[in-house]
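Consider the following input, taken from an annotated entry for Dihydrofolate synthase/folylpolyglutamate synthase (Thermodesulfitimonas autotrophica).
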Amino acid sequence: MALGGSGQNRRGVSGVGIEMAMMDYEEAIRYMQNAAAVGIKPGLERIAALLGRLGNPERCLRAVHVGGTNGKGSVCACLTAVLVAAGYRVGTFTSPHLHSYTERFRIDGRPVAPARLTELIWEVKPALESLRREGVVPTEFEIHTALAFLFFAREAVDIAVVEVGLGGRFDATNVIFPEVAVITNVTVDHTDYLGETVEKIAWEKAGIIKSGVPVVTGATGAALEVIARECDVKGAPLFVLGRDFYPVERENDLSGQVLAVCGWWGAYEGLRLRLPGRHQQRNAACAVAASQLLAERGWRVDAAAITKGLAAATWPGRLEVVREKPLVVLDGAHNAAGAEALKEALTDYFPGRRLVLVIGMFADKERAAVAATLCPLAGAVVVTRPPGTRAGDWRELAALARRHAPAVYEVEEIAAAVAQALGFAGPEDVVVITGSLYLIAAARAALLGLRRPDVS
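Applying the prediction step yields:
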């Protein structure tokens, strides 16, 4: 099937044409959701079979593979912006999305058009149906991964920035042989699938390490030891945050930061970063180190591209200010390490200001640890139910919050929870909305008046 041109170009730009295109898109999304196996099923057999039916588009891609517990998306955003600034055509695959599936598949930072994604899904459909007849049913994320690689091959990208979905070793993305691998950090998360210790989780994440491919990591302690052993076995050069490269803060406020990133190459000074939070300095440093390694492997990435790219990088839903008076901040701190990073940022940026917290988390997340970290900072806490079946007993988080906060309220519907928090806040207070990224997406849509185009 020819893949050039958007649905708008084929049908014209009339309201009827756009509506028809969106109906086609929604039908394609429903097909993809219904065709997929339910749940998370680690393993590479199904994605290998699907990609084989599609002609193995991943084999023609040069890529950077980004894994880790937290910060993967931010590193991908920074790397994408740097490579675009260097003049390359860049495909980026990340997950989850906030408002539309199209956000997962980007060219030069721009989401795929709905009509183009529709065409790709219908192109993949015969392969899915053929596999189903043989008893092979890929998961939805495996379908997304195949769509991404097919899209990037069709678009003839120069390089792809690929985010790991879960873990690494048995993640669907782990069929590529990258130029550089990044493991941002390793903390406890997704224990049902990755194991309950940092060492086990690090082993899973270290699975993206390939023979001879340089690795950048911000991991520490026992996790770093596991990654270092894997690098030794694979003959992969290892570059460690704090040892081989590091950020140096020059300026830091909610509107952004200025830093230097120093390393084996010397120093890149005067780097402006729009992403607030000290943790983003570490993410940016990992992106710079990966960019430097690409340069050393022959890619045309210089100081000007690094400077321009970091200054342009954005990542919605991470310490994002969406309203003033009261200030409303969104942050997808969905695990204990993310909560610690958010606490650090709130302490840095809002000393002495009253905080109102809106929070909702899935049942399989570290609710107690997150509540203990964030709720003592708040004058009032509104607990809400995140979207999806993983919410479980969402009110349990309210019981945990009451151990740490003077006033805790339970409001199931997200828009109503946000409205109640705004009602509690004075013009100089700060409303912080955090927890599940799916909650962040719903709250962001309500606050910004966005219409979610996808089928839920």
